[in-house]
Amino acid sequence: MSDYVDLSDQDAADLIDEGEDAGIYTLNRSSGGNATITGVSPQGTEPRVITDAFGELRQDTDVDFREISVVTDTINDALQDAGYDDFATLADASVDHIAGLTSTLTESRAENLLKEAATHVPVGLRLAKNAATYYDQRIDPDTERAAARVTDLSLVTDSVGEPLYRSEGWEPDDERGMYVSDIGRNAGSPVPTGLHILDDPDYPSVPKAATHPDAAYDALPVDDNGEVVPLAVPIDPRFQLPLDELIAKKLARGLVPIRVVGPRGSGKNYLLKYLCHKTNRGYQSIDVDRATEPEDLFGPLVPDGDVIVPRNGAVKQGLLNGDTIVINEFPVMQAGAAIALHRLLNEGTLLVKSHGELVEPHPSARMVITMNPPTREYRDSEPMNSATRGRFRSFEQPYIQEVDEEVDTLDRQVNSGETVVDRPTLKKIVQFAHQTRENESWPTLSTRNLTILCEHIEDGVYPKAAVKGVLWGVAEPNQYPEDAYETLNDYL
What is the CATH number of domain 65-121? Predict the structure, then answer.
């Protein structure tokens, strides 16, 4: 109740107890004293706060399309006469069929009507359709049943595409064949970065857009135009340039080791996936931990008949294929695994001692590591060995500093196709998230957390309750999300 009206939890509990005494509520109390409402006797008219939150109480079974802002009484009657009996059916209609049902239903008005109708379709129906689409992509044509896919990375020996300037016959410095930073601060004055675009967008490990036939759960979100949503590009606080520009220019220099440091959910991997998607580069993300050994990166020695032969691991095979290798949480690896990469970081060649091989990677291969900052919030993120740290070009990726910029990015991600969270509410949520990032005693809401929060809202959770739930979910043992609730009341 306190998520909907301006009442404390105790005031709400007192009202319910008073309602029980008055015969309004029937309560079932547990041995611990918690109460569950098991029956209600409505008293008078429905309170305005309930109507505002859940809509008018319906006494009839006929759908009322007048909930859509452009629908008048005449249009409502025309839609029902045309056979539309629910919002799901209406949302699937074509503009051509809707336009012209009445003299006022122009094509542009019909487009807006259908778009708004989609927001009234129960989310469960949309989820079912999306799940069916993904399931159909995984049907084995031989068995006509869905199946898991297992890829032996050591057998994926195809290389990434050739630089686009070569296949198109352009000059190497032709801007059409390179990544141009035109988002964030560079939107008004695009900056060519020199990072060549490759000519094979169908190379298996190129990050896919959500609309791609082979898209999986890790696909990049798209906007209303089907284009991948560009990231909200932060400015490196020391170099004072947009991160996509800085990192793309380093990637353009070849196998130059890059380190990206930033808090969880700030978009480190999304930035790298976005750059790989825009340039058709293979993306191999590898999570490491304290137990990671060199053979986990480069591959073990395995028996093959009477001999022992090397089997390529993800890092070695990715370097051979020309992928961009992203190693996450690099500092937690044992020193032996990190040191095994020193020659690659120094000289651009990989010496795999156990294999007896000196590997000169594909010219398109790149190496990036990511890590959280070694602060109190990330107690398990150890500082790197200074000898290893000095080999990297290091950048800091903070959370987005501008509220409106983060709102724009989230709006494109979560409201593509239909509105999940209206922009004014989204802005209040982002403003509160920025407050959590400035208070070390509160749980921190990252950009990633905000996309999850919006997902809860899409599932029917009230915005304030969704914020509370995500705050609770990310809280450290020594943090108390309740401490932030009073400030949350100022926003929602």
Answer: 1.10.150
